[in-house]
């Protein structure tokens, strides 16, 4: 229920993958949400097209992975243009190719199907945090353009309990709310173009004497090319590069003429590295590229943003019900973002450097050949190694505590089930493989839509969980494993609020 004078509990600004993922997560948690998007229609540009293993697991957690059908495996990954096998244990080894337009379509259908409202043609022009709510000034595009007899944009004021900027690296929410955004501007850049009607060899991080060339022909016949001239500084840009600039650079590096093709999409991206000091300022929060700017190498930017959204969504919804979890969003995701920006900066040195980095590249090739080094880099890029601090990092802590719930095949009272499917409702799960009566009694105290108690055993012939019982947060991370009843009670209180005063008594539902 929305408070009097409030239009919606949460305004999400930006209907890209991150904003739509967040909207769906908020709705699963029971929050009212409206998404504002300045574009009148969804983009058809391919943009980011790589989904990593952890993101695929998250989509399966919400019942969305199967809707993608059977996306092609993205083949071997890389670290700074050096081949890197991203395969790690799990249901989605490697990386997967899904055009961004398809990801947006999937998430939009899911979020709006859950009750999120999506308003297109809405451009945010002002944000004021009033302490107990946020006022947002919006310009709404006319349904009919002035050239066809319509009027210009109209102004509207919306009030929300919280606003989340998911509006990309040029975030208007970040600017209007005054988030500090320290870091470094780009010093080098890549030009990128999707081009129809050209026939050039596929090139995977091909290093020529004058620059780097990458080319990949997609199933529709469109070829994506990327190019960087060694020693060429990044140019200040307010718009995409021209097709002539791209073709000139490509010819300079490869000697090939691609000027006869038809450009479908053009852009430039550099090695800028920035991250907001705080992911939350009062009642305004940021997620995805609005919170961190990085070179989109290897698809990490999109995946990092989607994982921001999944961490934030259930916490903000719970906060609106009276559980004080919101500051843990910054505490958990800011270090993850900082680490990703660091590994991307290292990759940029290897990828965009000229002959001066060849010796360093040789050293990395040797290190990547070592199994432990390969697994370390693969876990970092895929997001599979993210582990949050659940218990202060004390001695004797279970090695999976704070990590994601691995994918196991289980047998439950309802029949066979995978562990990831247990999270479809967006609730916490108390997974009980030992049928301990005390666990059922504990779970009943939070059994009001916050935590589900699941008794299970490993499927015959399948590898079972490495624990007897575990508390799983809605985002899939393990918050308690095989500890004492007192530790379980503390974990339930920390992540799901106070227990019901009596079995079946609803918890407080909303908070201003």
UniProtKB/TrEMBL annotation:
GO terms for molecular function: FAD binding; oxidoreductase activity, acting on paired donors, with incorporation or reduction of molecular oxygen, NAD(P)H as one donor, and incorporation of one atom of oxygen. InterPro entries: FAD-bd (IPR002938), FAD/NAD-bd_sf (IPR036188), RIFMO-like (IPR050641). Keywords: FAD, Flavoprotein. The keyword Flavoprotein applies. Residues 7-341 form the FAD-binding domain. Its cofactor is FAD. Pfam families: FAD_binding_3 (PF01494), Rng_hyd_C (PF21274). The keyword Cytoplasm does not apply. This is Oxidoreductase. It comes from Streptomyces chattanoogensis.
């Amino acid at each position: 229920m929305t408070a009097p004078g409030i239009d919606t509990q949460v305004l999400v600004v930006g209907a890209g993958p991150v904003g739509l993922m967040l909207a769906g997560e908020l709705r699963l948690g029971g929050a009212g949400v409206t998404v504002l998007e300045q574009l009148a229609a969804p983009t058809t540009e391919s943009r980011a097209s790589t989904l990593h293993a952890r993101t695929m697991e998250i989509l399966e957690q919400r019942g969305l992975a199967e809707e993608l059908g059977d996306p092609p495996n993205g083949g071997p990954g890389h670290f700074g243009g050096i081949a890197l096998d991203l395969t790690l244990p799990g249901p989605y080894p490697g990386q997967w190719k899904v055009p961004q337009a398809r990801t947006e379509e999937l998430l939009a259908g899911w979020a709006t199907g859950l009750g999120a409202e999506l308003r297109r043609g809405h451009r945010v022009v002002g944000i004021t945090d009033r302490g107990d709510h946020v006022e947002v000034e919006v310009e709404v595009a006319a349904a009919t353009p002035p050239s066809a007899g319509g009027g210009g944009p109209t102004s509207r004021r919306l009030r929300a309990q919280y606003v989340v900027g998911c509006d990309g690296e040029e975030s208007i929410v970040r600017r209007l709310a005054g988030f500090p955004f320290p870091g470094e501007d780009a010093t080098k850049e890549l030009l990128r173009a999707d081009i129809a009607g050209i026939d050039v060899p596929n090139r995977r991080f091909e290093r020529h004497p004058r620059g780097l060339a990458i080319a990949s022909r997609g199933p529709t016949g469109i070829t994506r090319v990327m190019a960087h001239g060694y020693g060429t500084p990044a140019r200040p840009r307010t718009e995409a590069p021209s097709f002539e600039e791209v073709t000139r650079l490509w010819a300079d590096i490869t000697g090939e003429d691609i000027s006869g093709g038809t450009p479908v999409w053009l852009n430039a991206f550099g090695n800028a590295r920035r991250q907001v000091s705080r992911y939350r300022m009062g009642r305004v929060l940021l997620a995805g590229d609005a919170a961190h700017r990085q070179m989109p190498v290897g698809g990490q930017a999109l995946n990092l943003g989607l994982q921001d959204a999944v961490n934030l969504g259930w916490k903000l919804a719970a906060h609106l019900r009276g559980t004080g979890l919101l500051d843990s969003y910054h505490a958990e995701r800011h270090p993850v973002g900082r680490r990703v920006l660091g590994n991307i900066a290292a990759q940029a040195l290897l990828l965009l450097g000229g002959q001066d980095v060849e010796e360093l590249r040789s050293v990395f090739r040797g290190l990547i050949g070592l199994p432990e080094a390969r697994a370390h880099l693969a876990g970092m890029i895929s997001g599979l190694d993210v582990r949050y601090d659940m218990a202060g990092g004390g001695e004797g802590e279970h090695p999976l505590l704070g990590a994601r719930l691995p994918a196991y095949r289980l047998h439950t009272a309802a029949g066979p089930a995978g562990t990831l499917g247990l999270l479809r409702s967006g609730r916490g799960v108390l997974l009980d493989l030992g049928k301990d009566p005390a666990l059922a009694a504990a779970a009943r105290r939070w059994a009001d839509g916050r935590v589900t108690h699941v008794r299970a055993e490993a499927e015959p012939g399948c590898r079972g969980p490495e624990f007897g019982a575990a508390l799983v947060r809605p985002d899939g991370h393990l918050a308690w494993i095989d500890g004492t009843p007192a530790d379980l009670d503390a974990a339930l209180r920390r992540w799901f609020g106070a227990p019901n005063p009596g079995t079946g008594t609803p918890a407080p539902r909303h908070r201003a």
